[in-house]
Specification:
202 residues; alpha/beta; 7-stranded mixed sheet; 9 strands
């Protein structure tokens, strides 16, 4: 018997967030979950299993009350792709907006282009770049899959062909990362750059 049910759905400002996996393709050294905390605002986001679509659909609430639904927890949403696609499609059927926060490694993980599937039910993507060189990326993000940085750059370039609203972020304040070089990488690939600040979550 579990002492506490995991938080699958949580609200920040006027958006509803969907926490669909605890698994990730990265082990970022700046991620709070690797520094003893799995909390965003007052929400504990630790998951020990992959939730099913019906668990999340039952907690969507009134879609008209939220600016958007954001797939974002302390895991990589595309690793639980079937749940993501099913829930996102239900939100779209109810005329809601869907955003996915991703590390951009979904294609590498699934060994195929998942963007056509996402395009059917996702309005916007927020992709984490976080480094302007592969060396910095390996240092800060510690990917589990070989070829992750190149795969991420390919995903950033490909994404705007399928989804109109693609933002790519990097964190200002990471040692050795040139934030302006990150901006150039993103804009040269047709996406919108978003600068984040170190240690500010949510």
């Amino acid at each position: 018997m579990e002492a506490q049910q995991p938080t699958l759905v949580y609200d920040i400002r006027n958006s509803r967030y969907l926490n669909i996996t605890g698994r990730c393709t990265l082990q970022c050294q700046f991620c709070p979950k690797h520094n003893g905390s799995k909390q965003v605002h007052e929400y504990q986001l630790d998951l020990n299993r992959q939730p099913k679509a019906d668990e999340l659909i039952s907690q969507l609430g009134d879609v008209s009350q939220f600016d958007e639904y954001v797939f974002c927890g302390y895991g990589e949403p595309t690793l639980n792709l079937a749940t993501l696609l099913t829930v996102a499609s239900e939100i779209k059927n109810r005329a809601g907006k869907v955003r996915v926060n991703t590390d951009g490694l979904g294609n590498l993980f699934h060994r195929r282009n998942i963007l056509p599937e996402l395009a059917n039910c996702v309005d916007s993507l927020s992709i984490s770049l976080n480094a302007d060189t592969e060396i910095s990326y390996l240092q800060h993000c510690r990917p589990k899959l070989a070829g992750s940085y190149e795969a991420l750059l390919d995903f950033i370039k490909l994404a705007p062909e399928y989804i109109n609203d693609v933002q790519v972020s990097a964190i200002n304040g990471l040692a050795g990362v040139d934030i302006n070089a990150c901006r150039q990488i993103v804009e040269s690939r047709g996406a919108v750059f978003k600068q984040r600040e170190l240690d500010i979550v949510g």
